[in-house]
Design goal:
Strand content: 5-15%
Strand order of the largest sheet: 2-1-3-4
Distance between the termini: 43 Å
Order of helices and strands: EHEEEHHHHHHHH
Number of strands: 4
Number of helices: 9
Radius of gyration: 18 Å
Largest sheet: 4 strands, mixed
Length: 247
């Protein structure tokens, strides 16, 4: 265990979420799961060593990328965030994590950044502090850059309806895997719950109106799962309980 707190660099609360980045949320939740003291500081992606958040500073050692941060924390501080899982369950957890991070996350990003109404309501405001003369151009550049990322990924080459269809399949799969359990692998959370929670919360926030949110709200177990994780890891955050939780 460390005596000095680890510094986590992330974003400020936004869109009704403790952090708009599911990856920052993932790392913050995993730091809590590991019972490691930390402090969180605001940063912007261009300031990060790899140009993306999160990253951590542990007594002068900088570690980037949420997956490598987790591996570092487990190795350096002697914790196992998958304790209690057998080899098959650990493999299944990794497969779920990859589906959430490399597929469902990008569907969420499309509806947050490319959908015109949601972009104007949310990410466009990241440019509010820029000089007025360049503000609109900056917003256009930000959205174009995200479109390029989505196109390179592949998901952005599809229509709105196709992206919704693919995202819904992943949401339905997570709901099936969760079933009646409190967490993905039983009655206590493991590492994969941190990212599943982060992405599902980003989808379920009432701040945005998307077909993915509608798909997730059709699964009361997912709605309750996000609310449960929010109570445990962000007890001070006011999270609205969607109507589906009472179903």
């Amino acid at each position: 265990m460390t005596t000095a707190p680890i510094t986590l660099y992330g974003c400020a609360p936004a869109f009704g979420l403790p952090d708009p980045s599911p990856f920052v949320t993932k790392t913050e939740v995993q730091l809590q799961m590991a019972h490691l003291p930390y402090r969180k500081l605001f940063a912007i992606p261009p300031e990060a060593p790899k140009g993306k958040l999160p990253y951590v500073d542990d007594a002068g050692e900088l570690v980037c990328d949420s997956s490598f941060i987790r591996a570092y924390l487990e190795r350096k501080h002697g914790v196992d965030l998958d304790a209690g899982l057998d080899a098959r369950q650990r493999a299944e957890a990794w497969a779920i994590e990859r589906m959430v991070e490399d597929h469902l996350y990008w569907a969420m990003v499309w509806f947050r950044w490319i959908d015109a109404a949601n972009f104007a309501r949310g990410p466009a405001h990241f440019a509010d502090r820029a000089p007025e003369a360049i503000r609109e151009r900056l917003r256009e550049d930000m959205q174009a850059a995200k479109q390029n990322e989505l196109h390179a990924h592949g998901l952005g080459r599809h229509s709105r309806e196709q992206i919704a269809e693919l995202g819904t399949r992943s949401i339905d799969a997570i709901a099936m895997l969760l079933g009646e359990s409190e967490y993905l692998f039983g009655d206590r959370p493991h590492a994969v719950d941190a990212i599943a929670f982060g992405v599902l919360a980003a989808i379920l926030t009432p701040f945005f109106d998307t077909p993915l949110r509608a798909a997730a709200e059709r699964h009361p177990n997912l709605v309750d799962y996000v609310a449960r994780m929010m109570r445990v890891y962000y007890p001070a955050h006011v999270w609205p309980q969607p109507q589906a939780a009472a179903a």
